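From the shared-data thread, chain only:
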Amino acid sequence: MDFLKVSSKSSPSSVAGAIAGMIKDGVPVEIQSVGAGAVNQAVKGIAISRGFLSPVGIEIVCIPSFADIVIDGESRTAIRFSVLPRNNHANDVSYSVPNEERVAEATAEFSE
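Structure, as tokens:
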């Protein structure tokens, strides 16, 4: 699965825009961050996206998890966030598999 890779230099507003756009398009959002600064920017982006989505009637939930990854041959622990709409009625929203091109486009904007 592809992830939006958020770095410590990522703009929270840009991250929020990508999250809101993907959620509105019915694409589940997976974010990956390594390091405290990157996690901070990701969380701020998620919080800002809620402000973009709430006025149009979409509430979101965020599910954090850990992932062991390898960067430059070194094992690191990443924090991953799954961002989904809060859905009290299971059949109200259907999600497609993420469009790899769209995820790659958004990831390029946020990567270091």
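The first strand starts at residue 4 and ends at 6.
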